Amino acid sequence: MYDYQKTNLFTAQVADGIEDLALAELAELGATDCTRGFRFVRFRADRQTLYRVVYRSRLVSRVLAPLVRFPCLTDKALYAGARDIRWSDFLTPDQTFAVFANVSKSAIGHSQYAGLKLKDAVADWFRDRTGRRPSVDPREPDLWLHLHIHED
Length: 152
Fold this sequence. Notes:
The protein has five helices and seven strands, in the order H-E-H-E-E-H-E-H-E-H-E-E. By secondary structure, the protein is an alpha/beta fold. The strands form two sheets. The protein has a four-stranded antiparallel β-sheet. The two termini are 23 Å apart.
C-alpha cells in the first residue's frame, strides 16, 4: 500500500501567489486538513472528493499522490529507497516515463542528479525482473514521476 492510499493525503500544485485562493477552493470542494506551502496546497480527500478536485478545480494545475517517504541522506539511500518500490504497479517496460526532481536543503545538492538516480533505480528495477526497461521520454511520457527531497 502506498502513502496516498494509507493517508488520503495529496499535494495540489498551484501558481505562485494563489495558494490562499486554492486552499479556499479545495475546502469548498470538500478537501480537509488543507495547508498551504510555496506553490502548493496539501490536503486530504477520499476518492470522491479527489475526483471532484481534479475535475472541478480552476486553480490547481496538478494533483500529486505521494507513493513513499523515506530518509534520503545520500544518493545511495535515494537509489535504494526507489528500488524498493514495486514499479510494475505503475509502469511496464513498454511504456515511457520521465522524472521531475526538486531538491532543497539536502546533502544531495542537485535536482538533476537526484532525478537521474531515480531514473536509474526504476530502469534497474525493471531490467533485473524482466530483462527489459522502460524508456525515458521527457516530452510526452506515459508516467511522470515527481521526486521531492526536502531536508533529507
